[in-house]
Amino acid sequence: MDANGDAPGADDDASGSAAVIAMACAFAPMAWPATLVFMNVAGEEQGLFGAEHWAKLASEKKRNIIGMVTNDTIGTPLGDQGQRNDMQVRLFVDGFSPLLKQYLEAQRASTSTDATKDLQEMRRALELIARSGGIDDTPTNQLGRYLKETAERYLPGFEVRLINRPDRFLRGGDHLPFLERGFAAVRFTEPFEDFSHQHQDVRVANGVRIGDLPEFVDYDYVARVAQANAAGLASLALAPAPPETVGIEIHELTNDTRLVWKAPKSELVAAYRIQWRESGSPVWQYGKEVGNSNAFTLKGVSKDNFVFGVAAVNATGQASLPVFPQPIR
Questions:
Q1: Is the peptide bond prior to 80 cis by the omega test (within 30 degrees of 0)?
Q2: What b/e readout covers 237-273, taking b as 16+ CB neighbours within 10 angstroms?
Q3: Taking the model in full, what pTM does it have?
Q4: Helix (H) or strand (E) holding 88
Q5: For an engineered disulfide with 239, which of 113, 200, 300, 318 has Cβ 3.0 to 4.6 Å away?
Q6: Phi and psi of 185, rounded to 5°?
C-alpha cells in the first residue's frame, strides 16, 4: 500500500500480464467460433478490484463463461531454497469450496425464519454434489483437467501439476471473484516461489539482492507457461459447447452404467465422448467415442466404482469440457 516507494512487480505479476498480451497478439489474426477475452486487471494486491468489477458485471449480465484462467506469478522455475523445475507449472483447481463458502455466507446472512428459496436450492445442489461423489467434478475441476491434458499433449515433457484447492494456502488471486459467482476459474502459478522477490522493497540485505526485479525472471519459462495456456484456450475455443442435461440412470440396480444427454443448442456435433476414471484418480483414465447419439450403456463398468463425464466432439476432433452426470430416475 506504499504509494511512494519503488515497487516493481516483474514476476508478480508482469509475467502473467506479459503472457496474456503475447497470447492476445498470437490469437488476434485468427478467426474463432467462440469469444476469447484477454484482460489485465488493476488492483489485485489492494483487493481484487478489477477482477471483482468484471466478475460482478459478468454475473449480472449472465455471461456464458465456459472458463476463466488467471496467470499470476509465472516468471521463474526457481524456489527460494534452490529448487528448480523448468518443466512444471502449478494449476490451482477447486470448484466445490467456493460453492460451500457461498452457501455458508448466505446461511449466516439469513434468519432461522427466513430460509429463502435460493438458500434451499443452494443446499440441495451441494447435497447432490456430495451424495453423487461430484466434489472433484465441478466445472472448475473439469476445466483444470482439460488444461492439463491439452498442455501436456502439445508440450511434451511439460507437466501441469493439479493442486486441489482454490489457491495457495489461505491466499488468493483474480480468479476468486469468478469462482465465488459460480464461474469455472483456475490459477496458473510457478512451481516454487522465491519470497525474497515478492512483495518486497528493493534493497540489498546481507549481500542478497531483494525485490521483484526483471533480472530474476526466466523468460523462456514464461513462454512455456504461455504456450500451455494457449493450447487449452485454442482447443476450448474451437470445440463445440458441452452437452446439456447429462444424466446417469439409477432406476434399477445394475453393474452397467447408462448415460444420457441432450445436444448443445446450435452446435455441430459429430460425436460424443464418454470419459471415466477411478474415484481416486485426479485425471481421466478411460474414454470411448459413442457416435452422434444421445445415450450409451457402458457394459460392466459400474457407477459404484468410477466417475464419469460426457463431452461433445466436432468433426475436427475438438472436444468440449466434459460434463459430470446427475442422477436421473
A1: no
A2: bbbbbbbeebbbbeeeeeeebbbbbebbeebebebbb
A3: 0.92
A4: strand 88-92
A5: 318
A6: -150, 140
